[in-house]
Each structure stands twice: as C-alpha cells, then as structure tokens.
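Hi R.,

As promised on Friday, here is the backbone we talked about, encoded as structure tokens. Could you run it through your design pipeline when you get a chance and send me back a sequence?
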C-alpha cells in the first residue's frame, strides 16, 4: 500500500493491454458454439465451456460462469441464437413463439443487470423486423448471430471510451479502490471501472489498485486481482471491512466501481457492499465514481427503489468454498446487489462523457 512506482515493465504491458483470457468467443458459423471462460474456477484454473444450447447458457449466467452486466448482455445475445437456431424448419408463427420463450428464459436468469434485457430485446426486435419483411428463417438466425457479434464489438469500443473519459479524472500518482470486478472479465472489452485504470496507466500515470475481496464470492480477490496481475498493474487485496481503515489512513485517492443498473435519477445498483463503500467515501471526502456504458442506464426505472435485487443461495455465504463458516440451519440473507443513492456518487463515467449531478437532467441529456 506504500506509494511506490510500478516497475516500468508493468507499465509497458498495461499500455498495450489485452485480456489474458477472453471472456467469450463464438467459434464457427450459425451451427457453431459459444466458448465461455468459466469464471467460477479462477484464479486456480483457466477453462472454457463449450455452450451449445439454451439451457447451457442460462445455467452459465445463473451460476456466474459468466458475470458482469455488459458480459451477460453479450452472452445473452449469443443465447438468442442458440435458442432459436433449431427452429429454421418451422413456420414463422412457431418461430415467433420460440423467440418469445427464449427471451423469457434468458431474462429471468439474472434480474438485476439491465444489459441482459437490453441485448435480448435488441435481438428480438431485429428478428421481428426481419420476419415481418418475409425473410427466410435461416437468414433471420444468421442475422441474429451477426447482431450478437455487433453487440460484443460495440462493447469493446464502449469500454475504451469509458476508460479514456475516466482516466482524466485520476491524478498522475493515484491509488484507486474498487469493489467486485468490473474489468475485462465483466465485459466484452477491457472493462468499465478497470478500463479507467488501464487507460490511465497507458497514458503514463502511476496507478495502484486496492481491491476489496468482495464477499461472499470473492470476485475482487479471485477475479480483479488475477486480471490486474496479468496486466502488470500493482494491486493489493483487502478485506471488505478494511476499506474504512484504508481511507482513514489517507491511502485511497478515489473509488471507481462498475454498475449493473443505473436508474434515471442516478441511483446505482452494483455488487453488495458497494453502498457501504460509497458512504465511507463520502465520510472521508473521497471521490466515488461509477463507470458504466449508457446501456446500463435504465431510463424507465425512476429511482433505485424500482431495481429488482437478486437474492442468491444461502450456501454462498455459509459454505461458499467448501468449508462451513456458520452452523447448519442458521437463517441467511444473501442479496447479490445493493443500491447506492445518487447523492453519494461523485460522477458517472460513460462512453459519451462524464455525468455529474443533478443526475436526472445529466442522464437525460447524455441519452439524447
């Protein structure tokens, strides 16, 4: 945690950053499959899943083999292809019914991240347009695959733009605290929150990262630290309950986190524990930045009170990694996300620029 410069070799690697292991890639044509990095096994193993049908992609999303709002959206777009490609010999009406079923199955796999519904609704709208124009069903499926590729390519560009805008907010010598994982593993590109770090380092700034371990599934310790090490960025993992002490000691210059959904008023849903970090940052007069693409903004949700919060299995808390840490039969509450009120957010970093309060006005303007 000392303020020491990273070695020049590390800075050089980060300036030409490429993900150590791509989060996903489509292999083959329409009859191909989605190759997904199984993030539940990191950092111990790098293993790819061959996802070939709808149940497999729904399972991968639910059990966090793929996670992070933008990455889930990209994966779900490919899931639309997997779910309907066997229907090309059916009638258009049956194809439409299957399209609706696939959309519903994917939408319920994880309810909080808005990018998922954004991506599948975009794909479904394209399919409906093509069907109305009388396109043959094989052509419709081929266009859905092209659309999934386009969604992922767009996310790559968005990540770079978010990084560029956010990098300007960091000092030349800064320690960034982050919570959960909002890097390449969570997106189709180089990340959201971590893109800010990568682009700052690429611009010659001396950046160190404090990564909250992020209980209960340790995405900060397992994923963020692994990713930053691979990129050659100086990173230190801390217990979630050590962030207050780090701020009190003057170590933290700013907080940068990602988001799973942003309401129209600037309230932010992100991994459980983010709200506490935001309150601590305000108490210590430390900037708290949220980095996310505009696809994560849900203009139809007025405030954070309207954001559905996923609740997950008790075992993740009391026996998440094989060792029981609480007595059997104890009640467990395991929300996967919390909502940080807009008043604690210093700025929202998007691919279109940095939005500052008042957020309702600023968000509306940036979405025009």
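Update: got your reply. Pasting your designed sequence below so it's all in one thread:
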């Amino acid at each position: 945690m000392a303020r020491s410069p990273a070695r020049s070799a590390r800075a050089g690697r980060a300036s030409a950053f490429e993900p150590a292991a791509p989060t996903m890639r489509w292999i083959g044509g329409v009859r191909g499959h989605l190759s997904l990095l199984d993030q539940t096994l990191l950092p111990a193993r790098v293993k790819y899943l061959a996802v070939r049908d709808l149940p497999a992609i729904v399972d991968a999303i639910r059990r966090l083999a793929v996670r992070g709002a933008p990455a889930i959206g990209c994966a779900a777009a490919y899931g639309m292809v997997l779910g309907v490609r066997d229907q090309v010999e059916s009638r258009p009406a049956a194809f439409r019914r299957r399209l609706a079923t696939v959309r519903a199955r994917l939408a319920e796999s994880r309810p909080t991240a808005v990018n998922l519904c954004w991506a599948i609704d975009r794909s479904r709208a394209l399919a409906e347009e093509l069907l109305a124009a009388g396109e043959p069903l094989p052509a419709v499926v081929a266009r859905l695959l092209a659309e999934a590729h386009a969604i992922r390519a767009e996310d790559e560009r968005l990540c770079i733009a978010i990084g560029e805008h956010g990098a300007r907010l960091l000092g030349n010598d800064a320690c960034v605290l982050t919570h959960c994982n909002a890097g390449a593993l969570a997106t189709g590109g180089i990340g959201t929150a971590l893109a800010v770090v990568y682009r700052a380092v690429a611009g010659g700034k001396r950046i160190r990262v404090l990564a909250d371990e992020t209980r209960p599934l340790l995405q900060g310790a397992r994923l963020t630290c692994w990713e930053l090490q691979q990129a050659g960025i100086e990173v230190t993992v801390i217990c979630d309950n050590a962030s207050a002490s780090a701020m009190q000691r003057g170590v933290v210059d700013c907080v940068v986190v990602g988001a799973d959904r942003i309401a129209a008023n600037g309230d932010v849903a992100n991994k459980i524990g983010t709200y506490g970090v935001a309150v601590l940052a305000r108490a210590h007069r430390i900037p708290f930045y949220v980095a996310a693409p505009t696809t994560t903004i849900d203009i139809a949700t007025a405030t954070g009170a309207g954001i559905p919060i996923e609740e997950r299995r008790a075992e993740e808390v009391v026996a998440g990694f094989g060792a029981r840490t609480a007595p059997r039969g104890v009640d467990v509450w395991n929300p996967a996300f919390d909502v940080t009120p807009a008043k604690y957010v210093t700025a929202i970093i998007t691919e279109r620029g940095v939005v500052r309060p008042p957020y309702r006005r600023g968000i509306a303007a940036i979405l025009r």
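One thing I noticed while checking it: The chain has two domains: 19-159, 164-366.

Thanks again,
M.
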